[in-house]
Each structure stands twice: as C-alpha cells, then as structure tokens.
Specification:
388 residues, alpha+beta, four-stranded mixed beta sheet, GMP Synthetase, Chain A, domain 3, 31% helix, 10 helices
Length: 388
C-alpha cells in the first residue's frame, strides 16, 4: 500500500519559536543558580512588543529584559529591516510566584499537574524518529545555518519547512514534495515581475543550498519544490504574526505521526510532567525499539497533580512487537522509575539545558544535553524480554 505523510517545522525566528526560546532561556537562567527553582514561564510577542509572564518561585535573580533582548539578537532580529529589533522592542515583565496550593503537592514529590504524555520511537531513521519530521527540522536548521554563515545573505530569521514523504507498505521511499518559506530582504525581488516575486535565481539558490543537501537520497526528478509560494516573504516575524509559547507542540514532538500529549514543554521546569514525562516516555520508547523488542513503540502515560506514580501506562507497538504490548508494560514498570523524582534523576533534568530544545525538535537530537535520547537501557530490556 502506498500513502503520503507530511510534517512541518518552523525556524528559530518564527514568532512562536522566538517565544519558546525566551521561556526556556528564563528557565535555564533560574536552573543555573537555583536547580530547585519552580518555573512556568510564558512569552507573548507581537509587532514591537514582547511580554514575559507566568509563575516563578526561586532564590535566583533573572534580568528578564537583558535576557530577552540577548536571545532576540542571537536569533537575528538585529535590524529594523526585519520588522522587529532587539534594540527597540518594548518588553513587559508580568511574572509572579507559584501557587502554594500547587507547591504543597510538588514539594512532597507529586506531579506538578494532571495530564497525559506520549513518547514514540520507530526504525525509520538512525535517530529512531519518523522521517518527515526529521527532514523538516533539518531543513529549517540548514536555513538558519546558511543565514548565520552569510551563504545566502538575503535571508531573514523567520521561516518554515514542510516535507511530504511517500511510503510503500509502511516504509519511507522518497520525498514527494518540499515546502520552504524563507523570509528575505527586498534585494531578491524580481523587477520584471513588479517585485511581487523573488527571482528565479534566488529560488534555485534556496533549492540548491538548503533543500538538496538535506534531502539527498530521497529526492528524484519528480520531487516538487514550493519556495515562497505566494511570491515573496519580506514581512515576517512578529511584524507579521503574533507568537506565543507552546503553540508548536506537534512540531516539537513527532510531526503528527502519532498523538501528542496534552501540554507543551517550553518554559516548564521538570517537576511539570508535561515536560519530564514526555521526555521519559521518549526515552522508554527509544530503548524498546533499540532493544529490537518492537519496530515501532508508542508509550502513553497519565498523572494527577500531587501524586507521584502514573495513573496509567499504555503501550502500542502497532503489531510490530516481538512480545505482547501488555508484557512490554510490565517491562517498563519493572525497569523505569516513572515518578517525577525518578524521571528527574534518571535523565538529569535539573541542568540548564532547555533553550537548545526550543528549536528543531525536542526528540531525535544527538547533542549530549538530550539525555532522553540515550539507549543505555536497551541491553537490559533485551535480556529481560527474552525471559518473558
């Protein structure tokens, strides 16, 4: 059976991702000085204005204005020509402290909220992730790299990617189409077309410099390229769209290949199971696939505020399991500590590592900060499964 599946990603200068990075930047700054600080930080951005709010309880001091402007600058909003500038944007700080009603449950080791979280792994890529979302992330990362390195000097910070992969019998075979929306200056507008479209030269440069190096091996003569399909993308970033923390949960996880959990990640310290349990579920699922117990594995867990143990643990291997799904649940409960304290300890989550997660996906990353991507439990699980 043949089918097509599509995933998207967004660039570091996309308004929602700008907000995610600032929220996680605040979290990192707290954890640097106060590893037990409680953080739930939300950011909102629109034309000329950025607002940082939420609940933070900490002994650390965070200079929100300085931190936010530095992150905006690093992303690339350093010139008025991009419609948003770290020098001149207004910043409002509306942060207050965590509710004592929540704190009394968390202090005792319970979950910081109720909710359900999802982890997934599969054999489509070396990262044990679905191929469409991995390609989409790598495209926007490449977009940022060629901009920062001045390879394509006309690119701006905002952008998006989208990749459609053709599957045969459940296995990815080729990229059918790729969408790239790249913010740019007016320098590449075609005067022959009343400056309503970018030049064909610029279009081909974007394909050759960004798309093809990432998609090689999956593209062919029938692959379709949609580059700034409206014609141009000069007005972008917060000048064009409002952004908020947590609005890209599907981009942050598995690209829609499986369900996502009920809560976003950025700006939340690891006592919030929205984040820590989603990371732990990915860790568990990846180790099960790495142990060759299943080719695909979805983990679904749920918690209630103030209680440490999960209310439920559900597994679906989509018929690829070498043992039953119920037996895998038993493996999980016997080999992984799924309490908030256990997950924080296992994955060493009190480190200031989170801003790096805010762009290009929380999963499928090879950097050392991403402890939930380790497969150090695979051999143990493989031996335990053989005894069942």
């Amino acid at each position: 059976m043949k089918f097509y599946f599509t995933s998207e990603s967004v660039a570091e200068g996309h308004p929602d991702k700008l907000c995610d990075q600032i929220s996680d930047g605040v979290l990192d700054e707290v954890l640097k000085h106060d590893p037990t600080g409680r953080v739930a930080c939300e950011t909102f951005v629109t034309m000329g204005l950025l607002m940082v709010g939420g609940e933070i309880t900490t002994t650390a001091y965070v200079d929100i204005h300085r931190l936010a402007r530095e992150i905006i600058k690093q992303i690339g909003y350093d010139d008025p020509k991009y419609g948003f500038d770290y020098h001149t944007c207004a910043i409002i700080n509306t942060i207050n402290s965590q509710s004592p009603d929540i704190a009394q449950g968390v202090d005792a080791g319970g979950a910081g909220d109720q909710g359900m979280m999802v982890g997934y792994a599969c054999k489509e890529t070396e990262e044990l992730m679905p191929l469409p979302i991995m390609l989409a992330h790598k495209l926007v990362k490449r977009m940022a790299d060629v901009r920062h390195e001045n390879i394509l000097k006309y690119l701006g910070p905002d952008g998006k990617s989208q990749v459609t992969v053709e599957y045969h019998d459940g296995h990815p075979k080729r990229v059918d189409s790729v969408v790239l929306a790249c913010q740019h200056t007016e320098s590449i507008l075609d005067p022959k077309k009343d400056k309503k479209r970018i030049t064909e030269k610029a279009r081909q440069e974007i394909i050759e410099t960004i798309a093809k190096p990432i998609l090689k091996g999956y593209i062919d003569k029938n692959t379709k390229y949609y580059i700034n399909e409206t014609g141009k993308f000069v007005i972008g970033g917060p000048q064009s769209d409002t952004g908020m923390t947590g609005r890209k949960i599907v981009v942050d996880t598995y690209g829609g290949m499986v369900a996502s959990g009920g809560g976003a990640f950025s700006g939340k310290d690891p006592t919030k199971v929205d984040r820590s349990a989603a990371y732990m579920a990915r860790y568990v699922a990846k180790n099960i696939v790495a142990a060759q117990i299943a080719d695909k594995c979805l983990i679904h867990v749920a918690y209630v505020i103030g209680k440490a143990e999960p209310l439920s643990v559900f597994v679906d291997t989509f018929g690829t399991g070498k043992i039953s799904d119920s037996a895998i649940v038993k493996l999980i409960t016997e080999n992984f500590d799924l309490t908030p304290k256990g997950m924080i300890k296992t994955l060493d989550l009190l480190r200031p590592i989170y801003r790096k997660t805010a762009c290009y996906g929380h999963f499928g990353r090879q950097e050392p900060e991403f402890s939930w991507e380790r497969t150090d439990k695979a051999s143990i699980l493989k031996k335990a499964a053989a005894k069942l």
